[in-house]
Amino acid sequence: MKKVMFIYNPTSGRQIIQRRIDNICIQLLNKGYLVSKYATTKKDDAMNRTIQCCKEDWDILLVSGGDGTVNEVAAGIVEGGRKIPVGILASGTVNDFAKFMNLPRQVDEFCEMIFSEKTIDVDLGKCNDLIYVNVSAGGLLTNVAHQASSELKTILGRMAYYIEGIKEIPKQRFIPIRLKFTSKEYSEEEDVLLFLVSNSASIGGFKKFAPSAEVQDGYLDCVIIKKSEIQDIISICLKVLRGEHVNHPNVAYFKTKELSISNMSEKEIDIDIDGEYAGKLPVNFKVIPKAFKIFVL
């Protein structure tokens, strides 16, 4: 009899997610699985419960929540030292990683994925001491995700980010920041509007933001949008939809296993990890190859 722990964020997504979780648990019980549920109430709850599960005899972890909750489970797996397979039921505002991996949201399809027991080992990113599954970013509008309240995200979904973005644009005025990038592949000091260090191609709902990214290649993909005039910013934004922005002269794009970014300006620069505040520059990135085992279709 396989033991399944379902870790979920009760505030993530709309109320329909709660019914999906209950229905998934019923199907698992009917198949002979032993199922327990754990609802998070505060930051790090999902990570700490995962670490505990690694020390116990759980066979499968299921997680439902936004990217932040999934990151906590991934961090718990790394810290716990036991690569328990994880099933991800996306229920947050954006869920770029789940969409990139084509993970099911509907009950029957999700359960069939678990029953089939097909898994793959995917890479993780590490930003200083923080683990992440999809993307870390800094610069223009990257504070939007963690400024949108959890209540607004629950009620309005992705629209909450758009509202915060509209509010932030007049404040930021496309002012570049002076940063120093150091890696084996790319070492430059640049005036930058935005940088992203990603594990998957899908970022902020754009499916080809890091068009060559793969979650099993042992690399992180870095996108740097340099200082630009408004007409170039518009051009880059339009090209993002097709993944062609990486060919623009004001965009640097490269793969790396390790990268450090230093702040050469006087302004403090926030770092965002999958929609959550993650401190300020300077920062060191590295890839953790194939550290996270997930169920896939």
Descriptive keywords:
about 300 residues; alpha+beta; Rossmann fold; Tumour Suppressor Smad4; 2 domains; 11-stranded antiparallel beta sheet; 9 helices; 15 strands; elongated
Explain the overall architecture.
The chain is of the alpha+beta class. The chain has two domains: about 5-125, Rossmann fold, CATH 3.40.50.10330; about 130-290, Sandwich (Tumour Suppressor Smad4), CATH 2.60.200. The protein is about 30% helix and about 35% strand. The two termini are about 20 Å apart.
Measured distance between first and last alpha carbons = 22 Å
Average pLDDT across residues?
Answer: 88
- Percent of residues in beta strands: 25-35%
Q: What is the domain total for the residues? A: 2
Give the oligomeric state of the chains in this entry, treating copies of one chain as homo and distinct chains as hetero.
single chain
**Element-level helix/strand string:** EHEHEHEHHEEEHHHEEEHEEEEE
What would CATH call the architecture of the largest domain? Answer: Sandwich
**Could you say which overall geometry the principal axes of the C-alpha atoms support?**
elongated
CATH class of the largest domain: Mainly Beta
Secondary-structure map with pairings?
Layout (H helix, E strand, L loop, with lengths): L2 E6 L7 H15 L3 E6 L5 H11 L4 E6 L1 H14 L5 E5 L5 H5 L6 H10 L2 E9 L2 E3 L2 E5 L4 H4 L2 H7 L2 H14 L4 E6 L5 E11 L21 E7 L3 H11 L10 E6 L1 E6 L6 E4 L2 E5 L2 E13 L2
Parallel strand pairs: 1-2, 1-3, 3-4
Antiparallel strand pairs: 5-6, 5-15, 7-9, 7-13, 8-9, 8-12, 9-10, 10-11, 12-15, 13-14
Helix pairs in contact: 1-5, 2-3
